[in-house]
Specification:
The complex is a heterodimer. Chain A is built from three helices and five strands. Chain A is of the alpha+beta class. Chain B has helices spanning 16-24, 29-32, 54-68, 85-88, 93-96, 132-140, 154-164, 172-178, 182-194, 226-235, 267-270, 274-277, 282-301; strands at 42-48, 73-77, 108-111, 117-120, 143-147, 214-220, 240-245, 259-261. The chains are: A alpha+beta, B alpha/beta.
């Protein structure tokens, strides 16, 4: 079982766990696959050593901080916010992949 | 009047006015109606190896070009990998993410860029009948593009086959024979009496029916040619054309690509496909030519067998 899967199993009883699992699975499937990092902050995905997003669990919701500077955050507790966060993550991942020097 | 020196026809000969009543007088009102027009719908699948989502990019650009050619275009998105076609065609997040979100319902049609219809909410799961709303959009479409997952096989395509099925256009001879015209029967009797050798007819390929008119296998210039063969094996007997992405030298030996698209920024970065953002871009020109070639192939075949 991977480190991410272990983490998702640990938080599976929380209300936000289903949406968190969806986001993590979709981000992991992006190509090229971002590197996953687990810590006290929660889950962090990196692409070429730059942060794509960071997901931190807070009980009934989780916060998704998106972008290399993590300036935009989404408080995810419903499907609509999860969709907006995932949309932003996909765009940031594409931008990081396309112009690595400009955003470094 | 006896000014005409030519001999008059003998009493036994039949002239046009003698037989025209056979055609004109024996046609019922139902026969006078013109045959129902047969709508031609182009069905093209776009597949890839899944890396970099090149096939989704090509699918989005071809959809834009068909829309710019005023062809009513419908896209089936069978690839759940993000960023998918709906993302590239600027659907709302809740629309293009319909296949992953827990609120997923039955497949539905969403309107995207330039009025392109995208069927969202489809996954590679068990087969289910398409809703009437989706079926109606398929019936009205002039072009159906299927963005295929790398593992898409014939069984997956058979899910949508009933929806996009069409009947090949009847030939002129078939329509004439079904009209029960005495003139046609007389003509056939004359042709049979002459005992001329029959024209050579090329039989349609037997076996499994085609689910698509053609498929396009998208790969990078340095990718091996075997990817296209693997796709062809999974969806046979549909012919698979190889499309190379990028301007580099084609790596595969002995396989000339059907087309080569100049490398360009994807819709995920540009915000929309290059074909709609910059129609004069060399890549957009290439996509435009490909769309016209596919439509021309459909028209030449009269039923989609030469696309």
């Amino acid at each position: 079982m991977s480190e991410l899967e272990t983490y998702l199993e640990d938080v599976r009883d929380l209300a936000c766990a289903p949406l968190l699992r969806i986001l993590c699975e979709q981000v992991q499937r992006l190509a090229p696959e971002p590197q996953c990092e687990i810590g006290t902050f929660g889950v962090r995905f990196r692409c070429d050593e730059r942060v794509v997003c960071e997901l931190s669990v807070f009980g009934a919701l989780f916060i998704a901080r998106v972008g290399p500077d993590q300036a935009v955050d989404y408080r995810v507790r419903d499907v609509a916010t999860a969709a907006a966060a995932l949309d932003h993550i996909v765009r940031v991942h594409a931008a990081l992949r396309a112009a690595p020097a400009a955003l470094a | 009047m006896d000014g005409d020196p030519r001999p008059r026809p003998t009493s036994g000969a039949r002239r046009l006015k003698d037989i025209s009543h056979l055609y004109l007088s024996q046609r019922s009102s139902a026969r006078l109606q013109s045959p129902a027009p047969v709508r031609r719908c182009l069905r093209v699948g776009i597949a890839g190896d899944g890396r970099d989502g090149l096939h989704a990019e090509v699918c989005a650009n071809l959809a834009v070009q068909f829309a710019r050619l005023r062809v009513r275009t419908l896209v089936f998105d069978l690839d759940p990998t993000l960023p998918n076609v709906g993302f590239r065609l600027r659907l709302d997040p809740q629309a293009y993410l319909a296949h992953v979100l827990p609120t997923e319902g039955p497949p539905r049609v969403e309107r995207a860029l330039l009025g392109i219809r995208v069927v969202v909410g489809m996954s590679l799961g068990p087969a289910a009948a398409l809703p009437d709303a989706v079926q109606n959009e398929v019936d009205a479409a002039g072009c159906v593009l299927v963005c295929m997952h790398p593992q898409t096989n014939r069984e997956h395509l058979e899910r949508i086959a009933p929806a996009v099925d069409w009947t090949p256009a009847p030939t002129t001879m078939t329509r004439a024979a079904s009209s029960h015209s005495p003139m046609f029967e007389a003509w056939m009797a004359t042709a049979a009496a002459r005992r001329a050798p029959a024209a050579r007819v090329t039989a349609a390929p037997l076996g499994a029916p085609r689910l698509l008119d053609a498929a396009i296998a998208v790969g990078a210039a340095n990718a091996p040619a075997g990817a296209g063969d693997a796709i062809a094996a999974r969806i046979q007997p549909t012919p698979v054309h190889r499309l190379v992405w990028g301007t580099g030298a084609v790596h595969a030996v002995g396989s000339t690509p059907w087309a080569q698209v100049p490398e360009h920024e994807g819709a995920a970065v540009l915000g929309q496909p290059v074909s709609s953002l910059d129609p004069d871009h060399p890549a957009a020109r290439t996509y435009e030519n490909l769309a016209q070639a596919l439509l021309a192939g459909l028209g030449r075949s009269g039923g989609g067998w030469h696309v």
